[in-house]
């Protein structure tokens, strides 16, 4: 975006950099402010209704799992949202969760420490699924070569594939998610798509990969139908039913459980830290902190002025960490300096440049919401 045409939202810090879909009203307010408001109003029950609905959902979870060792599954990464979800589910609501962690080979030492320490203090058992590294590495390389900003699709896809798979294995009917509208309500669509799209994943792997997908936990529309419609596995976004504040959650986790902050959203993963902190800004001019901070502004957790100060800081926590991570990522992926630079210089592409199930997934998720509307009402 040319400097003379640059615009920034007057209420958040969303701007015209790398975002073809942003528009502004006569007051200079971007479309994301209204989108956030509508999203929150749609997803989050009123202060009056939320406690009643949550009580009903918790009763259903406990009833469905009364004869099982566990009554729900919680995916844990070591980050704020998933850790606080585990804390709240066990300590406040009295649920009997099984924590599930997907190890894709990129866990930071801090993330591992956080997970082990918190779950031990909460007395929650951990089930870890370790991905086949050579296969997963090949898929990650394929997505880098595909040249879309969706480089985290393999990880996100695998997480949900594993959560549903484990739920069926242990006959658990509820997945408790740390996903929440308040702190995740803003993200330009062009920055990340296709996270549960097997057509997209397969096409990228077919074009750029060197291995066939064998053990990777796929989540196709047929899989979703099996898990959701036939096995009746329900997903509950717990944090949407409580007055969730990321600041307060972090304070509680630090004070009560000894949790340690890792420096950025999803930075508990070395690859995510490198992808978001270096590859996205360098190759796509995308700084995801802009969306994360704008969401917190809309949620009332920080001021716009505070967000402007934060976004003015370097994308990476430190230059030394960037150098170390770059060496580590290249070595772990088996890329030479020249090969990595070639990937960075490839022309950017979009999710829609590849085969996808976009329409099918949208229809399936609509059916999913109708099937289980009663579970969350």
Question: How would you describe this protein?
Answer:
The protein has 377 residues and is of the alpha/beta class. It has a domain at 45-265 and 357-376: HUPs (Rossmann fold, 3-Layer(aba) Sandwich). Helices cover 52% and strands 6% of the residues. The protein is built from 16 helices and 5 strands. The chain has a 5-stranded parallel sheet with strand order 3-2-1-4-5, with helices on both faces. Helix 4 links the parallel strand 2 (97-103) and strand 3 (126-130). The chain starts with 30 loop residues before the first helix and ends in a 6-residue tail after the last helix.
Q: How many separate helices?
A: 16
Q: What is the assigned CATH homologous superfamily of one domain?
A: HUPs
Low-confidence stretches: none
Mean pLDDT, to the nearest integer, reads 93
Order of helices and strands: HHEHEHEHHEHHHEHHHHHHH
Per the principal axes of the C-alpha atoms, what is the gross shape? globular
Secondary structure tally: strands: 5
Going by helix content, strand content and strand pairing, the class is alpha/beta
Biggest β-sheet: strands ordered side by side in the sheet:
3-2-1-4-5
Level-2 CATH architecture of one domain: 3-Layer(aba) Sandwich
Measured distance between first and last alpha carbons:
44 Å
Instruction: Give the helix proportion (percent range).
Output: 40-55%
* CATH topological fold name of one domain: Rossmann fold
In the CATH scheme, the class of one domain would be: Alpha Beta
Q: How many strands, what sense, and barrel or not for the largest sheet?
A: 5 strands, parallel
Radius of gyration, CA atoms, in whole angstroms: 21 Å
């Amino acid at each position: 975006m040319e400097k003379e045409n640059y615009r920034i939202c007057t209420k958040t810090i969303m701007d015209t950099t790398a975002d073809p879909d942003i528009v502004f009203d006569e007051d200079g307010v971007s479309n994301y402010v209204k989108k956030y408001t509508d999203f929150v109003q749609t997803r989050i029950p009123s202060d009056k209704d939320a406690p009643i609905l949550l009580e009903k959902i918790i009763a259903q979870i406990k009833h469905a799992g009364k004869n099982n060792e566990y009554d729900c599954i919680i995916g844990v990464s070591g980050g704020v949202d998933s850790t606080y979800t585990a804390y709240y589910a066990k300590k406040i609501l009295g649920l009997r969760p099984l924590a599930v962690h997907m190890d894709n080979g990129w866990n930071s030492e801090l993330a591992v420490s956080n997970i082990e320490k918190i779950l031990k203090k909460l007395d929650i058992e951990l089930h870890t699924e370790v991905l086949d590294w050579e296969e997963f590495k090949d898929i990650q390389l394929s997505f880098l070569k595909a040249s879309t900003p969706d480089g985290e699709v393999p990880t996100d896809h695998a997480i949900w594939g594993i959560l549903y798979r484990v739920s069926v294995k242990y006959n658990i009917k509820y997945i408790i998610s740390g996903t929440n509208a308040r702190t995740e309500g803003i993200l330009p669509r062009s920055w990340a798509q296709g996270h549960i799209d097997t057509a997209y994943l397969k096409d990228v792997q077919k074009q750029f990969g060197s291995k066939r997908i064998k053990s990777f936990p796929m989540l196709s529309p047929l899989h979703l139908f099996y898990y959701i419609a036939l096995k009746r596995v329900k997903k509950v976004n717990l944090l949407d039913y409580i007055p969730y504040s990321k600041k307060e959650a972090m304070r509680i986790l630090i004070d009560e459980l000894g949790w340690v902050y890792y420096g950025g959203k999803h930075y508990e993963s070395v690859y995510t830290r490198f992808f978001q902190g270096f590859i996205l800004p360098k190759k796509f001019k995308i700084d995801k902190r802009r969306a994360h901070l704008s969401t917190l502004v809309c949620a009332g957790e920080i001021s716009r002025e505070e967000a402007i100060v934060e976004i003015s800081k370097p994308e990476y926590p430190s230059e030394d960490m960037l150098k170390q991570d770059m060496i580590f990522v290249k070595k772990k992926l088996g890329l030479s300096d020249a090969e990595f630079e070639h990937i960075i210089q490839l022309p950017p592409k979009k999710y829609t440049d590849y085969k996808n199930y976009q329409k099918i997934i949208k229809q399936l998720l609509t059916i999913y919401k109708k099937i289980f509307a009663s579970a969350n009402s």
